[in-house]
Design a protein that fits this description.
mainly alpha
């Protein structure tokens, strides 16, 4: 009898734990499908399309830009129509359309059709990203910060697995097979993410409403610096995110570019969780500045030092930071309690991603090295904006809730101050 009671008690205690990790796994799968595969598989496939499908460097940059324009449209939709962020139908529809756009890429040689398909992929990946991240930040708000970090790691898992697929297929098949295999991988991730619970509606958040809060600093000036840093990061990182494989393959063996991209994904899987753990010792502005400086070094390495070793170190540094930057920036925006911070920061990021390929396109006639150096300088500028964010940053923000509309409860009067550190 006592043993049976202990088993029931153990099952009750393990239930919430299991539910948390189920939510993390579903969000990670959504991000793997939408970002890791749907968005970033273009990077290792791009060199194959250059050599096998006759795609020019300028057309390749145009396809990238179309994807980022679609991403911006999706982010703006999340701002203009907040109900989309809370809709399971939007998530599922986006996963289906995204997978279909990957399937359709090998069906044509028309650059115009490719542009439309990459635009659709960008739009749906943005919606998937905003829904998944808002869900994670909402449902895991009061849990350890490494849990959302592992959810963000889904992007790295998608990059690593799709990059590995392309690395294997490039020696036995062509660019078409790479797109079809990537679509199959996206479909698997979509199936895992199918039942992800989006962010709850305001009325269902534990039945509480926000009561009168204690005076707290106005977040606008810090959010402006954060927005500038994250937008500049969008410009710099996307140049590496789009052209890193092609740049490495210009001066290294053919396998080195795809191999480096797999390493980017593997380094990205634990990166967000590790940066979240570092938040126990350092503030988010400090971590954001450090991550951006490290990333700038990683982007510049292949351009300044040739060879396989530099390429692999570059991939490691880039993979270890680009998701960490997103995790830190989005968490800082949430901490500042700025309205719709996730969607706004994502929109700024996507504007930067549109500008990135356009800015470096004139430099691509001489290869990719000049483009990578310019991208590294832009990321250093983002680090400068993050350094400004450190000045007077409100590390403690009051969070006050009331269980009865219009009344402050006793617990609200003594609500603990929320620290910006995870």
């Amino acid at each position: 009898m006592r043993l049976r009671t202990q088993r029931r008690s153990s099952a009750r205690s393990s239930g919430p734990f299991r539910s948390l990790w189920t939510h993390v796994a579903q969000a990670a799968a959504a991000l793997a499908a939408g970002m890791g595969v749907g968005r970033f598989v273009y990077t290792p496939i791009l060199p194959l399309m250059h050599t096998q499908a006759g795609l020019s460097s300028a057309a390749g940059a145009n396809l990238a830009t179309a994807n980022y324009i679609g991403y911006l449209v999706g982010a703006l939709m999340g701002i203009a129509m907040p109900a989309l962020v809370r809709s399971p139908a939007v998530l599922r529809g986006s996963l289906i359309v995204l997978t279909g756009s990957l399937v359709a890429m090998p069906a044509t040689h028309s650059v115009t059709v490719w542009i439309v398909l990459r635009l659709l992929a960008g739009l749906t990946s943005a919606l998937i990203f905003v829904v998944a991240v808002s869900s994670v930040l909402s449902h895991l708000r009061d849990h350890p910060a490494h849990l959302p970090g592992w959810a963000f790691g889904g992007v790295g898992a998608g990059i690593a697995l799709s990059g590995l697929l392309v690395l294997v297929l490039r020696s036995v098949a062509d660019w078409r097979a790479a797109w079809w295999a990537s679509a199959g991988l996206a479909a698997v991730f979509a199936a895992v993410a199918w039942n992800l619970r989006p962010e709850g509606t305001p009325a269902s958040d534990a039945g509480s409403t926000t009561g009168p809060a204690r005076p707290s600093p106005r977040p606008h000036r810090w959010f402006t610096a954060l927005f500038a840093a994250y937008t500049l990061e969008g410009i710099g990182y996307i140049v590496a995110g789009t052209f890193l494989v092609a740049a490495i393959e210009q001066s290294s063996p053919g396998w080195a570019g795809s191999g480096a991209w797999v390493l980017v994904g593997l380094a990205a899987v634990p990166s967000s969780a590790l940066w979240a753990r570092l938040g126990r010792r350092w503030s988010r502005p400090d971590l954001l500045c450090a991550a951006l400086v490290i990333q700038a070094v990683g982007i510049a390495l292949p351009a300044l030092i040739g060879g396989v070793t530099a390429a692999l170190i570059s991939a490691l540094l880039f993979g270890a930071t680009f998701l960490g930057v997103s995790t830190i920036a989005l968490a800082a925006g949430t901490h500042l309690q700025f309205p719709r911070s996730v969607a706004l920061l994502t929109a700024g990021y996507s504007v930067g991603q549109i500008l990135g390929p356009l800015v470096v396109t004139p430099l691509l006639h001489h290869g990719y090295h000049q483009a990578l150096i310019l991208a590294a300088l832009v990321v250093l500028a983002a680090a400068g904006a993050a350094a400004v964010l450190r000045i007077g940053f409100p590390h403690h923000m009051a969070v006050v809730r009331s269980t009865v509309p219009g009344r402050r409860s006793a617990s609200a009067e003594t609500a603990p101050i929320r620290s910006d550190r995870p």
